[in-house]
Write a structure and sequence with these properties.
The protein is α+β, with helices and mostly antiparallel strands and 214 residues long. Helix content is 45%, strand content 18%. It folds into 2 domains: 66 residues, no CATH class; 144 residues, Nuclear Transport Factor 2, Chain: A, CATH 3.10.450. The strands form 2 sheets. Strands 3-4-5-6 form a 4-stranded antiparallel β-sheet. A two-stranded antiparallel ribbon has the order 1-2. Strand 5 and strand 6 form a beta hairpin. The protein is globular. It comes from Bacillus mesophilum. This is DUF3993 domain-containing protein. Keywords: Signal.
């Protein structure tokens, strides 16, 4: 009875560790998406009413570095009677791109920076036309949080420092390494197939239908 209870306890810990490790990357991705969506809403809100320059900067400050803020304001901010506002445009520069916020939106991390970008197919009709292209933004840690630090237009994704698929592969490898350290404990509890040896346990971890990928 004691062995059975111990085995169930270890299994529970193992399952929770795998679930938490898998969800962590997804949670990070959703947080980045939410931050960019809020940053875009902040930009758009500046066209709703006239404000002082101080109020404008307070709205943008949680989402943009001073450099990115200056790029956006220099391009889009207008002044009248010491009050500031933005105007609608069909060709917005230094706005957050119109990301789909799904698997098409790529996130690459490199040296503390997040490169968020997406492919946008060509548009040949309407007031603004362009060829196939990749647009995006760079996020940098500032004041203990990520902020948009630069805007990317018509970039070549192959020149970016790494790709999201490579990052996911590294995450999978890290999960395997963490589970591998638990195998001796599982063997002691008599949990099959770990109890029959390391070879059987490795097969389970590597199998696409096994614990690692469930």
């Amino acid at each position: 009875m004691y062995r059975l209870g111990k085995s169930l306890f270890v299994c529970l810990l193992l399952c929770l560790s795998v679930v938490s490790m898998t969800a962590y990357a997804n949670t990070d991705r959703e947080e980045v998406f939410t931050h960019l969506q809020n940053a875009y809403k902040a930009q758009i809100s500046l066209g709703g009413e006239e404000r002082s320059l101080e109020e404008v900067r307070e709205i943008l400050a949680p989402y943009f570095t001073q450099t990115a803020e200056s790029l956006f304001l220099d391009e889009n901010l207008y002044e009248e009677n010491d009050l500031y506002f933005t105007l609608g445009t069909d060709n917005p520069f230094y706005y957050i791109p119109d990301f789909s916020y799904n698997h098409e939106t790529k996130i690459v991390e490199e040296n503390g920076h997040l490169y968020v970008y997406q492919f946008f197919p060509a548009v040949y009709e309407g007031p603004v036309t362009y060829e196939d292209r990749y647009d995006g933004v760079i996020l940098t840690v500032k004041d203990d949080r990520y902020k948009v630090s630069d805007f990317l237009y018509n970039i070549n994704p192959s020149e970016l420092p790494g790709e999201s698929e490579g990052k996911q592969k590294n995450q999978d490898q890290n999960r395997f390494q963490q589970l591998y350290t638990l195998m001796p404990i599982l063997a002691e509890t008599g949990i099959a197939p770990f109890s029959s040896g390391m070879k059987s346990g490795l097969w389970l971890l590597l199998n696409e239908n096994g614990i690692l990928y469930k």
